[in-house]
Design goal:
Layout: E1 3-7, E2 14-18, E3 20-23, H1 30-60, H2 67-96, E4 99-102, H3 103-136, H4 141-144, H5 147-173, E5 182-183, H6 190-196, H7 202-235, H8 240-269, H9 277-301, H10 304-316
Parallel strand pairs: 3-5
Antiparallel strand pairs: 1-2, 3-4
Helix pairs in contact: 1-2, 1-9, 2-3, 2-9, 3-5, 3-7, 3-8, 5-7, 7-8, 8-9
């Protein structure tokens, strides 16, 4: 552990300030750690390949040059960013049973996790609005959801994510860490970080709660309202075939939304009293590792257009 010395407020003695942390990861037997290493390594490869496949198909297949698939490809970009931010270092600490990370790298890791999750919250809301217009106002869909509109919304979401997260990242970076430097987690997350701070964390907590309004609550509200109107519109369709077709266009998105927001709520909103550290680690991995894995699977296995694009690509470029 690396220390520098500085005077602590209201004390004359010198106190050691932590400049690096030790992340414990999963403290289990060597055999289980090796098994976890293999599992997460395979998950990482499958996730990267699956999301890159979707990005490539959407970019090259003319049948997928629609707003919905453009948004799906952007979701894949976000998934690649968040899992690449978490898993490589987690694999390292699994091999050596824990590892050190300096303060700047820790804050940077946490920053990119937050940016990716913020962007995904906004993007899922945009995608729900896209489905709302497609089902509730199909005649005006092409004039409302234009290519320029999609690109503008996507860029704005990325810029918003990178900007708003800085509010509490900068405040967190200014905290003093002068006690234990052990993070009993699998990556640098806000909860274990604030628990180690020896200065007042009230402002950080306040900033997080305030930024949750545009990051989580507003997107969640948009999703709920959009799907309320979608359900009402679908129920008015007299044909059972038409209802099934309308619902099928939204089912994949609903599954992704449910998984993502359920894990976020369990990690950051629902009280953690009585929850074990292992449970907290697993829940955190659900939205940083598991969700990026299942997103391309859900959108590919349940989507005839993507399956068709894969088949066309295979036929054009046979092995």
């Amino acid at each position: 552990m690396t220390f520098v010395t500085c005077p602590k407020q209201k004390e004359n003695n010198l106190t050691a300030v932590v400049t690096e942390f030790f992340i414990l990861g999963f403290q289990v037997s060597q055999g289980l750690r090796i098994l976890l290493f293999v599992c997460f390594f395979v998950i990482y490869l499958v996730t990267i390949c699956g999301n890159l496949l979707i990005i490539t198909l959407v970019s090259t297949s003319k049948n997928l040059h629609t707003p919905m698939y453009f948004f799906i490809s952007q979701l894949s970009v976000s998934d690649i960013l968040v899992i690449s931010d978490i898993v490589p270092y987690m694999l390292q600490i699994l091999l050596i049973n824990g590892g050190t990370i300096n303060f700047i790298d820790c804050i940077t890791q946490f920053y990119f996790v937050c940016v990716s999750e913020t962007f995904e919250c906004l993007l899922l809301a945009i995608m729900s609005y896209d489905r709302f217009v497609a089902i509730c106002n199909p005649l005006r869909y092409s004039s409302i959801i234009t290519s320029a509109y999609c690109v503008t919304l996507t860029i704005s979401s990325w810029v918003f994510g990178f900007t708003i997260v800085l509010i509490y990242i900068i405040t967190t970076a200014k905290l003093n860490f002068c006690g234990p430097n052990i993070i009993d987690h699998v990556f640098c997350d806000i909860v274990p970080l604030l628990e180690l701070a020896c200065s007042d964390t009230f402002i950080v907590h306040l900033e997080i709660y305030v930024t949750c309004i545009p990051i989580v609550l507003i997107p969640a509200t948009i999703i709920v309202i959009s799907y309320t109107y979608i359900v009402l519109a679908v129920l008015r369709i007299s044909s059972s075939t038409g209802r099934h077709k309308a619902f099928s266009t939204c089912s994949s998105h609903l599954i992704v939304v449910s998984i993502f927001f359920w894990t976020l709520l369990n990690v950051y909103i629902i009280p953690t009293k009585g929850r074990t550290l292992t449970t907290s680690k697993i829940l955190s991995l659900l939205y940083t590792v598991f969700t990026p894995l299942v997103n391309p699977i859900i959108y590919s296995l349940r989507n005839k257009d993507i399956i068709k694009a894969v088949q066309e690509a295979v036929y054009k470029h046979p092995v």
